[in-house]
TrEMBL record:
Gene3D superfamilies: Spore Coat Polysaccharide Biosynthesis Protein SpsA, Chain A (3.90.550.10)
Species of provenance: Nitrospirillum amazonense
Signal peptide: none
Xref: InterPro entries: Glyco_trans_2-like, Glycosyltransferase_2, Nucleotide-diphossugar_trans
Chain ranges of the Glycosyltransferase 2-like domain: 31-192
Protein name per its UniProtKB record: Glycosyltransferase 2-like domain-containing protein
Amino acid sequence: MEFRSSRQEEGWQVPSFDVNLFCPRGHRYALVIPVINEGGRIRRQLQAIAEELPPVDVIVADGGSTDGSLTADFIRTLPIRAVLVKTGPGKLSAQLRMAYSWCLADGYSGIITMDGNGKDGVDAIRRMCAKLDEGYDYVQGSRYLPGGKAENTPLERTIGNRLIHAPLLSIAGRHWFTDTTNGFRAYSRRYLLDPRVAPFRDIFSRYELLFYLTARAGQLGLRVCEIPVRRSYPVGEATPTKIAGFKGKLSILEELWRAATGGFNP
């Protein structure tokens, strides 16, 4: 069925999407996993989450996969609440706007996000929940903190994150971050609904929303922290990423600069 949030009438801009609902709501927090054509990686990740059984409802935010990895028969074997399938325009940030709008409309108190390519350690989901319970509004996962682990991270990624990305967003967000390229993070309901944030805008289409939400929380004086996580890149395989080529990397830098300099602020 196609979903239209009543919040859209209040000015939210959310791409059209279909909702495939598999079970009722069971927890305070939602775990949103954006994915598109991740094949066996997303299947293994969902199975690992099922084995871990963290206190979250799992919501898959599918950008339009065509690889057959998210069939209803497979999803029904796991404790997954819903698969949302974007039918409107946009890339990662559009998938996140889709999922966040649905979760907020359904009353969740907080939202955790992790990538759908199997790089993140699922054991940190519980620690994300604990930080939300403590009243934090933005929780960033970091492979570089004591207790975290960076496995097989490409050198180019390490240099870009440590020397460019994290310093820029740390200055902009008035809080020192060590791993701002990491998509494993959590947001409070209060943060996402703050009118000074306004994340539900079509301006967020690619990776902009991740960068913007990293900086905006500290600017508004909300509670921010980092926690250690594990992030592992596969050995002997192509790097799981949707960012390719010089043009794609240049676009990321442009989005980063705009987020750091207030270009996305309402």
